[in-house]
Write a structure and sequence with these properties.
This protein is of the alpha+beta class. Helix content is 34%, strand content 26%. The chain has 4 helices and 5 strands, in the order E-H-H-E-E-E-H-E-H. It has helices at 10-23, 31-36, 82-96, 109-113; strands at residues 2-4, 41-45, 52-62, 65-73, 101-103. The chain has a 5-stranded mixed sheet. Strand 4, helix 3 (82-96) and strand 5 form a beta-alpha-beta unit.
Amino acid sequence: MIRKARIGDVKKIHKILSAYSEQGTVLPRSMSELYDQLRDFVVCVDSADGSIIGTCAMHICWEKIAEIRSLAVLKAYQGKGIGHELVHACLQEARQLEVEQIFVLTYAARYFRKFGF
């Protein structure tokens, strides 16, 4: 299930992002940054146990311009379309907010090309 992130999710989001930032695949995000930008984030929740298994953010940068960032899915759940669902949720919110341009800065360019980036 994809939903907007909540205060209680921040520590788990931080843990997931930190694991990938240590590998150099996503930029690190401090706890302070995550609390400050919490409204940017969506999470995927495992229906079996309610744990956070993935996250993504859509950050508004300026008038009608936003960035998709901090996409991360736990390794055990990769290859199941969760990343696609998370990005789709962010793109849907961008459309609702009338964002006209969305960009992504990534090491996974091939993955994001599937979405038209």
